Amino acid sequence: MDKTFDALLARMHELRDLGGVIGLASWDRETYLPTRAHEARSHQLSTLHGIQHERLVDPRLGELLAWASEAPGLTPDQRAMARVLTHERNRAVKLPRTLVKALAEAQSQGLHAWREAREERRFARFQPALSRLLALRREQADAYGHGGERYDALLDEYEPGMRVARLGPVLASLRDTLIRLVGALQAAPRQVPELFQGRRFDTEAQWRVSLRMLGDMGFELDAGRQDKSIHPFSSGLHPTDVRLTTDLDEHSLEGLFSTLHEGGHGLYEQGFQPAHHRTPLANAPSMGLHESQSRLWENLVGRGRPFWTHYFPLMRDTFSEGLAGVALEGFLAAINRVTPSFIRTAADEVTYNLHIVLRYELELLLIRDELPLDELPAAWNERMRRFLGITPPDDLQGVLQDIHWAWGEFGYFPTYSLGNLYSASLYAAARRALPGLEEGIARGELRPLRDWLRDHVHAEGYRLPAEELVRKVTGQGLTDVDFLAYLQSKFGALYGVTL
Amino acid sequence: MDKTFDALLARMHELRDLGGVIGLASWDRETYLPTRAHEARSHQLSTLHGIQHERLVDPRLGELLAWASEAPGLTPDQRAMARVLTHERNRAVKLPRTLVKALAEAQSQGLHAWREAREERRFARFQPALSRLLALRREQADAYGHGGERYDALLDEYEPGMRVARLGPVLASLRDTLIRLVGALQAAPRQVPELFQGRRFDTEAQWRVSLRMLGDMGFELDAGRQDKSIHPFSSGLHPTDVRLTTDLDEHSLEGLFSTLHEGGHGLYEQGFQPAHHRTPLANAPSMGLHESQSRLWENLVGRGRPFWTHYFPLMRDTFSEGLAGVALEGFLAAINRVTPSFIRTAADEVTYNLHIVLRYELELLLIRDELPLDELPAAWNERMRRFLGITPPDDLQGVLQDIHWAWGEFGYFPTYSLGNLYSASLYAAARRALPGLEEGIARGELRPLRDWLRDHVHAEGYRLPAEELVRKVTGQGLTDVDFLAYLQSKFGALYGVTL
C-alpha cells in the first residue's frame, strides 16, 4: 500500500465529501423533500452512513493513520488532521456492530414509547424504553473505554477532551450563582412587562430583515443560504455551502434571534481556512465551541443595546404597526425579560443554564445508575423547584418535554452551557482586543467582530481541543466568571438591582 | 459468500440509493446551490460517482449476478432485475480506467475549445478537441464490443438493444417524408401568423397555471415538486421524489409546454410499481421511451385542440391582457406554427426531427471515420439546406450550436426522434383503448390517459427492451407511420392542405 500523506488526504477528502452529501440529504429532508419521500430518504441516508462507516473503519485507513502518527516531515496541520481522524476512527472501530443495531432498535422503540407517554402525560409509559437505552449507552461507554466515569466517554462524542471532573465543579458554581440571581431578579422592585402579546409582524418583512442582518454580520450569501424549516438549524455541507434555516412567526420576533443564532453557527462554518477544506481540520473542536458562536451573536450581540441602537430605527420603519408605541428602551427590556419557565427552548439568558444543569445532573446520575428510574420525574420536579421556583403541572412539561432522552442522547446537553460560558469569555476578549467594538456595532459595523472571530477561532479549525483554543484566545480556559459578570452587569441594570 | 437473492437485492438497493443521492446533488446544483459552492459540489459528485462505480464493478457483485443468471426458482421480475444490472455492470467492467480518465480530460478540453470556437464563430478552433473525443469514443465502443458498427455500442448506452441497422431505415424514411411535408406546408396558401411577439404573461401566474396542469395530469405533488432552473429538467430521485424544473419567461408561454414535457417524464418516474422501487426495474428501458412520455404530454396532448378546449378559457381569464384579442383558433394555430429554424430546441413538431436526423447522419459518419472533420461544417450546412431549406449564417448557428458534441456525446440524439415516434404510436393505442379519450380531455379529464400509460408503460419498468414493450402495448414496434399520420392530419388541417 502506498503510504503517503496524499493517499491519506484522498481518504479524508472522500469521507468529507460523504459528510457533505449526508448534510445535503438531511438539509433537504427538512426543507424541500416531498412529503411521501421520507422513507426513500431514510434508506438513502442509511446507505450513505453505512458507506461512511465502512470507509472509516477500513483497515487500510488504519494503516495510513498509524504511518502518519510516526512519519517524519509532516507539517503540524498534517499531524493534527491525522490525530483528529484517528480519534474519530478509534471510536467507530470500538463499537461492535451488534451494539449499533441494538441501539438503533432501542432508539426507535424509545421514540415510540416517548410519544405514547406524552399522549398519556405519564412517565411510567416511557420508563422501560429509557431503561433499555441507558443500559445500551453504558455498554457503549464501556466499549469506548473510560477511567471509571462512563459519562466521560459519552461526553467525548460532542465535547472531545472534556471530563466530568472538569465540568462538574464549573456547572455547580454556575448553578449556585444563577439560583441566587433568579431570586434577586424576581425580588427586584423594577419588573419588565411582557410586550409582544397580541402584536403582529409580517413574516415577509421579517425574512428581509433577517437576510439583511445575516449580510451585515458578514455571512456570505454566495457561500450559503437561508431557507425555512419547522425547527431552525444550520448545516455546513462545505465552507462554501453553509445552509441556515429559520422559522418565522407573525406573532413574535423570536425568528430574528434564531437567525442570529444560526448565523453565528454559519460564520464558524464559513470561516474554516481553505487549506483545511475537505479535511478533519475544517471542523469546530467541540459542539460547545460551535454553540459559543451562535450564542455570542444571538445574545451578547443580538440582545444588546449597541446592536439595537443601529437596528431599532429600521425595525420601527419596517414594523410600524407591530411596534407602535414601543421605544428602544422598552424593546431592549422586553427582549431580555427574565421569567422562570418549564421549557429550555423558551428560556431567557439567566434561567437557560439552570435547565441545562438540571439535566446534566440527572444524566450523570442515570448513567452512573445512581437514580432509580421511577424516581426520575420527582427528581426533575424537585430540581425545577429548587433551581427555578416552579413545579411542572405534569410529566409532559417536566421530564417528558424533550426528545433527546427519547433518542437515548446523553452527554449532549452540557455543550449548551459550555457554549454560553465560552461565548462570554470570547466576547470579553474581543472587547479587550477591539477598542470601540460596541460603538462600532451601534453604527451597524458587525464585520470587525466577525473578522476577529474568524482570525482567532474559526480559522483555527480543529487544530486544538476546545478549551485549549479558548485559553489561547482569552488567556483562560473554561470558567463561569465572564458569563456571570456579563449577566450581573446587564440584568442588574435592567432590573435596577445590584447582583 | 452468501448467495441469495436478498444479498443481491441489498446491493441493488445500495446502488439505487447512491443513484438517488447523485440525483439530489445534481438537482440541488441547478436549483439551490450557493454560487461559490460549485467546486465543492463537483468534488462531492465525483466521490459519489467513484463509489457507485466501485460498487458496480465489485467482483462479489459479479459473482452474485452470475449465480442469479442460473439460479432456479427466481421470479421473472427477479431475473429481469439481474439481467438489467448485469448489462450495466458488464459495460462498466469493460471500460479501462485509463480510458475513463482520458475521456474526462478530453471532455474538459472539448468544452473549453468549443466555448472558444463559439466566441470566434469558427469551427476550426474546436476541430482538434473534437477529433480527440471521436478517437476516444471509437476506443470506448471497441472496449464495449460491437458487431462491426461502433455506433451501436454508443447508442446502447441510451437506447439498449437499438442498432443502426434497425434505426437507420426508419430515420431515412422519416426524413424523406418530413422534407416533403415542410415543402408542402411552406407552399400552403394558408399561413399561420406569429402571435406572441410583444405580449406579456406574468410569470407568477404562469407558475400557478403550470402547477395546476401538473396536478390535473396526475403528477403527484406530494411525491415530487417543481422548482426553477435555467434549463428545465426532470430528475427521479425515487418514485416518491420526482423533481421537475421549469424556466418561465414573461415574453412567452413556452414554459407551460416545458412543464408538460417535464411532467410527462415525471409521470413515468412516479409510475414505477412499488415492488420495483430501489431495483434496476424502476427505470425506463431507454431514453427514447422516456422521451416518448414527455413528447406525448407536451405535443400530442398539450398542443392539441381537446386540451385547449378545456384550458383556454382559464388562460384568457388569467392572462386577459397578454391574450387580448386572441381566440382559441388563433391560439391553437400559433402554438403549432411551422417554421424552419437553425436551432432544434426552438423547433416545431414538423421540423424537429429533421434536426435530429441531420445530427444522427453526421454522428454516424464521424464515428465511422467516413467524414473528414474539416468538412463537417459544410456537411452540416448542406443538410440544413436540403432538409429545411435554410443556411446557417455562421458556425455558431450551425455545427457549433450544441453542447453535446463538445462533451463528446454521440448516440444520444436519435433518442429524441425515437421518443417522437413512440409517442405517436402510444397515443394512437391509447385512443383505440379509451374511446372518448379526447372528449374527456376537452372536459379537463387527463387522469384516464395517465392511468392507461401507468398501467401499460410505467408500471412495466425495465422488464422489456423499449421496442418490445412498445410492440406489446401497440401491436407494432418502431415505426414512423403513426407519427406521420398524426402530423399529416393535424398540420394538413391547420394549413388547409392535403399532406
Automatic annotation (TrEMBL), chains A, B:
Its EC number is 3.4.17.19. Keywords: Carboxypeptidase, Hydrolase, Metal-binding, Metalloprotease, Protease, Zinc. The active site is at 262 (proton donor/acceptor). Its cofactor is Zn(2+). GO terms for molecular function: metal ion binding; metallocarboxypeptidase activity. CDD domains: M32_Taq. InterPro entries: Peptidase_M32_Taq (IPR001333). Gene3D superfamilies: 1.10.1370.30. Signal peptide: none annotated. It catalyses: Release of a C-terminal amino acid with broad specificity, except for -Pro. Binds 1 zinc ion per subunit. Zn(2+) binds at residues 261, 265, 291. It is an enzyme of class 3 (hydrolase). GO terms for biological process: proteolysis. Broad specificity carboxypetidase that releases amino acids sequentially from the C-terminus, including neutral, aromatic, polar and basic residues. Belongs to the peptidase M32 family. This is Metal-dependent carboxypeptidase.
